[in-house]
Amino acid sequence: MTKIEDGAVVLFQGDSITDCGRNREIGTDLGRGYALIASALFASKYPEKQVQFINRGISGNRVKDLQQRWQEDCLDLNPTWVSIYIGINDTWRRYDRNDPTSVEAFAEGYRDLIVRTKETLDAKLILVEPFVLPVPEDRKRWREDLDPKINAVRELAREFETLYVPLDGMFAAASTKAPSAYWAPDGVHPSPAGHALIANAWLEAAQA
């Protein structure tokens, strides 16, 4: 049986992968990615639970951006479940804008989100690990920056006993069945098939 309770409010938080073109003017819009797919599959399987899903992902966000809007876009919404998927932009900005985020600052900011959530809400947490695939070729260089951040997220999940969605290994494994670009054309933003992978892994973590 799923861990998600009757009448739950599930909040998806993150960057462009979560945002995925959602209409900001419509508070119930879930975008076109994994948040929509996961919520649709869940709702079709558990209609009696009447679970509400909310998407507040914003394209380009880093951990520090989530920190700045956490009160309004998380705590004030009073969710019973909080799904956090952040980190790839904390790596990307080092390479495209020479604006790096140290692994220490990343972990500290992420910890702050978790602590504030736990102190304010009686909410369960799902942490989604960031991933990158080697398309185009220059993405391979990103591993030195991203890998320690992935480890930081894993350590936080262990420390706070959250649910966890291990995307990096999953996308690597999927890339043995079809080319990396099939799952994420730019190595970062998932294709529809990639979003379906995330949605299924998210539902699995929630035992749904």
UniProtKB/TrEMBL annotation:
From which residue to which does the signal peptide run?
A: none
Organism this protein belongs to: Paenibacillus tyrfis
Q: Which Pfam families match?
A: Lipase_GDSL_2 (PF13472)
Record SUPFAM superfamilies: SGNH hydrolase
The molecular function terms of the Gene Ontology recorded here are: phosphatidylcholine lysophospholipase activity
InterPro entries referenced in this protein's UniProt entry, alphabetically: Ester_Hydrolysis_Enzymes, SGNH_hydro, SGNH_hydro_sf
SGNH hydrolase-type esterase domain boundaries: 14-197
Name used for this protein in its record: GDSL family lipase
